[in-house]
Amino acid sequence: MRLISLLLIFILVSCSNMSEKKIIGETAYINIQEIETEFLSRIDTGAASTSIHAENIQVLNSSANKQKNLGKKVTFETENNNGERTTFSGKILKVTKISNSQGKEYRYEVKMTLGWQGKYKPVAVNLRNRSKMKYKLLIGRDWLADDYLVDIDKEAKKK
Q1: Percent over 90 (pLDDT), the chain
Q2: Is 100 inside any structural domain?
Q3: What is the reported pTM?
Q4: What phi and psi, each to the nearest 5 degrees, are found at residue 119?
Q5: Cα–Cα distance, 145 to 78 (Å, whole number)
Q6: Rounded distance, CA 80 to CA 131, Å?
């Protein structure tokens, strides 16, 4: 009897947590608060972290050893799917080793505040040249966690 009661409590808590989560599609228009720019983004549950298209990455007082650039100011240019170009400056929070189909590389991470349907959430975003990719902003599990469920049948809609 006690086991059944615990199971019922678990199911109720799980259901209430799911009802608080928003359902997002495999693509979505995500706004980046700091640069006031919207990106048609790929929602990728297979990616651990969020990644943005970055060109002309400049680190103030840069060191050849990327790890030594931690905490320094970085500036880069980005471009969304509409060709709108903006510049972002922020502090390097982390230098991450990323493994993907192209191999392994080190990327800088900066804090950005990403929003969808009026709900904003800060996340560490890694910088990568995504010029050859369809989606200039890739949303990973770090941003999705605790707040979103992904429905691959749901289509991205403009506000």
Answers
A1: 70
A2: yes
A3: 0.83
A4: -105, 120
A5: 25
A6: 10
Residue at 138 is within a domain: yes
C-alpha torsion 93→51→27→102, nearest 10: -150
Per-residue model confidence as pLDDT tens digits over 94-151: 998 877 777 888 899 999 999 999 999 999 999 999 999 999 999 999 999 999 999 9
- Residue 93 CA to residue 84 CA, distance in Å, equals 26
Tokens of 2: 């006690």
Residue 94 structural domain: 22-151
Q: What angle do CA 25, 26, 28 make, to 5 degrees?
A: 65
Residue 1's pLDDT is: 59
Q: Are 37 and 31 in contact (CB under 8 A)?
A: yes
Q: Which residue has the tokens 């983004």?
A: 41
Chain position carrying tokens 């009897």: 1
Residue 129's identity, in one-letter code, is N
